[in-house]
Amino acid sequence: MPTDRRTFLRTTGSGLAALAGAPLLLTRRDHDLVLRGGIVHDGLGGPARVADVAINGDRIVAIAPSITERGREEIDARGLVVAPGFIDIHSHGDGSLTRDPRAESVVHQGITTIVVGADGSSRVGIGDYFTSIDALHPGCNVASMIGLGTLRGEVIGSVSRVASASEVERMREMVARALQEGACGASSGLEYTPGGFASTEELAAVCRPLAARGLCYATHMRNEDDRVLEAIKESMDVAEGAGCALHVSHLKMQGPRNWSRLDAAFAMLESANQRGMSVTFDRYPYVAYSTGLTSLFPIWSRDGGIEAMLRRVDDPATAERVRDAVLAKVELIGGWDNVQVTSVSGVGDRGVEGQRLGSYAASQGADPYRFTVELFRRNGAGIGMVGFAMSEENLDRLFAHPLGMVCSDGGAFAVDGPTRRGTPHPRGIGSFPRVLGRYVRERKALSLEQAIYKMTGYPAARCQLADRGRLAAGAFADVVVFDAATIADRATFADPYQYATGIRAVVVNGAVTLDGGARRGEGNGRAVRA
Hints:
Layout: H1 13-20, E1 31-40, E2 49-56, E3 59-64, E4 71-76, E5 81-84, E6 86-88, H2 104-107, E7 111-116, H3 126-136, E8 141-144, E9 146-147, H4 148-155, H5 165-180, E10 185-189, H6 200-206, H7 209-213, E11 216-220, H8 228-242, E12 245-248, H9 262-274, E13 279-283, E14 288-292, H10 306-314, H11 319-332, E15 339-343, H12 357-363, H13 368-379, E16 384-388, H14 392-400, E17 404-406, H15 427-442, H16 448-455, H17 457-462, E18 479-482, E19 503-508, E20 511-515, E21 518-519
Parallel strand pairs: 1-4, 1-5, 6-7, 7-8, 9-10, 10-11, 11-12, 12-13, 13-17
Antiparallel strand pairs: 1-2, 2-3, 5-18, 14-16, 15-16, 18-19, 19-20, 20-21
Helix pairs in contact: 4-5, 6-8, 8-9, 15-16
C-alpha cells in the first residue's frame, strides 16, 4: 500500500481466504469496517489514545487497543486523528440540498451532521421536512431548529406590528408541535424581517415549550455592533422569560470601535451561567460575516419587503433618513470596500459578484449608495454580501472560551454542479479545517482536544442529538479521520471553490462517504431528531 495514502485496504473475507488457500467457510466477515491504530479522540474533551474502532451497520461496536477481528473494509489510521464526525450547530446547508444532496462542501470539512433552521428561518412543518430529508439520502445528517421568523411570517405576515394574544398562542403551539416532531431548538433572526418585528415579550412567550424539553433558544441577536451588549441583555431576558437555555449565534463585535466590548460580553454570559442560566454561543473562524445586502438598510425601512423599502428610498419624507442609516452602517464596518457582493439574482449584474462595492461603483462612475439602490431595483432582495468587520484577536478568545462552540454559518455547495454559483463566503467550505489548522496548530488559541469537543460532543449535547458527537460503543458511526499536522482550509474570499486538505476519510452512519479526499458511494445521511 502506498505510504502517502492511508486509506482503505479494501479487503474482503473471501479475498483473504482465497489468498490463504482457506476453505470458503472462512469468508464470514467479523465487522463491516475497522479503523486501525488511529489517535482516537472521544469527543468529550478527554485525552486521546491509540486504538482500533470497529463498526457494524450504523453503530460503533468496539473501541480497543487492538481489535483482532477483521473488517470487511479497513482504514489504516496510524498517525492520524480519529474523531467523531463534526457537528455544525449553525448551518445553512439545507438551502441547496434539493439541488445537490451530496453536500460536498460540508462533507469535505469532516462535518457529518448539520443543524439548520438557524436565524429564525426554517420549514414550518418539521415532521414533513424530516421525511423529505430521508427521501433525499443526503451526504450528511440534518437536524433542524424551528425558525420563529418563519412562524411569525406564517401567522402575521411580513409586517411590523404587535402580535395579538391569539397569534402568540398559535405560534407557541407551532413551536410545541415542531419540538414533538424532533426540532432541536428554536431560533430567531432579529436583524431580519419578519422575525425582527417580534418584541422581547413575544419571543419569551413563544419559546416556553423549550423549557420542558431542555432545548435552547438560539438567536441571531437584534444588534451585533454598537448595541451588542443591549442585544445580549435582551437575549437573556427572552430565555429567562421562557425558562429555557440560551445559545447566542455567531457571537461577534462588529466594527473596530466595538472590538473591546468582548470582555463585557463574556462577563454577561459568565454571570448568567453563575446565576443558574444555561448560556452558550458559537462562532465561525473568519473576520468577515455574510448576509443579505439588505442588512445595510435599517429594519424599519424593510417593513413590507423590498418594494416597500425602495419606496422609502425614493420618498422625500424618508429618503434622507434611510441614506444616513446606510452610510452610518457602512462607516461602522470600515467603508464601502469592506462590502463584497457574493451573489445577485439577475444575469446582467453577474460582473459585480466577488467585487468590493466601493471600488466597483467607482469603476462604473457611480456613487456607491446609489449604485447599491439600483442593484436592488434590478435584482430585488436576492443580493448577498460579505462584510469585513471583526477582529482576529477576538477570534482567538472566542474559540478558547469554555462556553463557545464552532460553526460555519455557511451553505452547502460544490466545486462542480448546480451549487457552484457566485462567490460565497469561504466559511461554507473551510470553517472546521480552518479552526484546526489556523487556531489550533498555528495560533495555539486552544488545544486539539478542546477544538474537537467544541465541534462534536458539545453541540450534540446542546441540541440533544442522542448517540452522536462521541466515539463510544453503541454510538452512531459518524467518524472523521484527519492529519492534525496538515489539515487546513484552502478556500478564499476571491476563490472559495477549493476543498480543504488533510481530511483523509469521513464515515456517515457507518458508510464511507469520503475516501482519501474523494467522494465515495451514495449519500448515507438522514434526518436527526432531538
